[in-house]
Amino acid sequence: MARPLRIEFPGAVYHITSRGNNRIDIFEDEQDREAFLEILYGVSVRYHWLCHAYCLMDNHYDLLIETLDGNLSIGMRQLNGVYTQWFNKIHGRVGHLFQGRFKGIVVQKESHLLEASRYIVLNPIRAKLVKSPYQWKWSSYAATAGQRSSHPCLTVDWILGQLPSESKMAGENYRKFVKAGMRLESIWKDLRGQSILGKDDFVEEMKDHLTGKEHIPEISKGQRFINRPILKNIFTAEVLQSKGARDERIIEAVKKYGYTQKQIADHLGLHFSSVSRIMRMKEIMSRK
Fold first, then answer.
1. Per-residue pLDDT tens digits for 151-172
2. The pTM is what?
3. Which of 57, 84, 140, 178 has the fewest beta carbons closer than 10 A?
4. Quick one: angle between helices 261-268 and 243-255, nearest 10?
């Protein structure tokens, strides 16, 4: 089974999603949701997490978590493990509650955390469960907007601090900010390798955290090679002037950067068999 790429460091921010096994509901009533938030609060205290936003749907949840100590995986094992034990006991069931491993996307705080927080609380709108985010009781929207008291697991200071206004107007400006997001394009256009949400410079900063992971086959190729150069930069005009140089770059693109032979063939306008032949010749020459 493929395993997701985990990038962990002090101060990292994540958009986290965890879904029910076989798409089953992980929350059957209000008691379940209240218990989950209490468990989240306990985990946040124990592992020094900051929860900037949350939304509890029926068969999944979304969180926006900042890990001050770079300990996402251990905290998530505690969160999902303790909640599973509680849920199974209350509902008289056994076995896995969550579908495999959680999804954790590293978010660039300065440029994308605010957008990610808006995306999360708009989940019920996109699912057409309610017409206003305020109508969905089980998200952080109303608390951040100043319309309901905050659960202890939630911190709103950073989110509201990004909206220029006097403190008494912060909630109103947040409500306007979220409403405006209902008409905007998805934030996922800046997602890289299903693992990093941010600008190019942020992805570049993540290189040190990715070193060595490109050789772990259990991690999907798209995640292992997040910071690889695009094919246009590998096959420059200068390289394409020489067949030998081109062939060397073809081999490099496959072996070093994880591109498929079909991707390379399509980019260069070659038949797949031509790229395959170049790779075979390289293998033959390396045996001599």
1. 999 999 999 988 876 666 888 8
2. 0.75
3. 84
4. 150
